């Protein structure tokens, strides 16, 4: 049996040093200890590099791939790491601004190895910049038409951090991670391959919420230092089951609120009343106009 159960891939780039102790720290605290952590550097700066080196000194399970800035998000570097260096039975992913709950790898391993699936999508608790918590949208298990993933209404099911797959299934793909055309999202472009090139793969999803997902918001979103403060507050919750239960309960309350909105007004657009749409469109138009100036 493989000594390494999971390879966790964390892409990062310049200016991300402040958030890495928290995202990487959440991986180090997994209930499954037989892991390797690949930090994929895509043009990191000296300050970020120092943070990563300090993390490596604390735990030998961390490997740092220090690359110059590549095209798009450095997808080619992820491919090299998984094809030539990874030893895990499964591959998990984590954005450097998200956090794993302690049972994330354990849950993914259960579905992929013990229940014999190739591609798994977990669920997360989505925390916005005002602290509101809702459930991330969850896919339905079974066959999926990944060609529809470019649709805004569908692609939210397949966020980066909740996805896991077996290493074997990845190495059977014709391309794996590769430079993504500018009109596509990099992760969606990657996930499409699991259906497009292997008709036998069936997706499995769970209701288990094992990730704290922090939405980026409007570009450029919070700075790395602001995001680090946000992660620090939630990082301390990861080992406190009562606090995690409180977050989950808040998500359920917000789910009920959204359901009640539908009873009053059955047509909502991104959770908002139809009457607010013209105002939102005007606001976005003004934002784009001012950017041009």
Walk me through the structure:
There is one protein chain. By secondary structure, this protein is α/β, with parallel strands linked by helices. The chain has ten helices and eleven strands. The chain has helices spanning 20-28, 46-58, 75-84, 104-114, 152-155, 167-171, 186-196, 224-235, 241-264, 277-292; strands spanning 6-12, 35-42, 62-67, 90-93, 99-100, 119-127, 133-135, 163-166, 203-214, 268-269, 272-273. Strands 1, 2, 3, 4, 5, 6, 7, 8 and 9 form a nine-stranded mixed beta sheet that branches. Strand 6 (119-127) and strand 7 (133-135) form a beta hairpin. The protein is globular and about 55 Å long.
What is the fold's blueprint, element by element?
Blueprint: E1 6-12, H1 20-28, E2 35-42, H2 46-58, E3 62-67, H3 75-84, E4 90-93, E5 99-100, H4 104-114, E6 119-127, E7 133-135, H5 152-155, E8 163-166, H6 167-171, H7 186-196, E9 203-214, H8 224-235, H9 241-264, E10 268-269, E11 272-273, H10 277-292
Parallel strand pairs: 1-2, 1-4, 2-3, 6-9
Antiparallel strand pairs: 4-8, 5-9, 6-7, 6-8, 10-11
Helix pairs in contact: 1-8
Describe the structure using short key phrases.
about 290 residues, 10 helices, nine-stranded mixed beta sheet, alpha/beta, disordered C terminus, two-stranded antiparallel ribbon
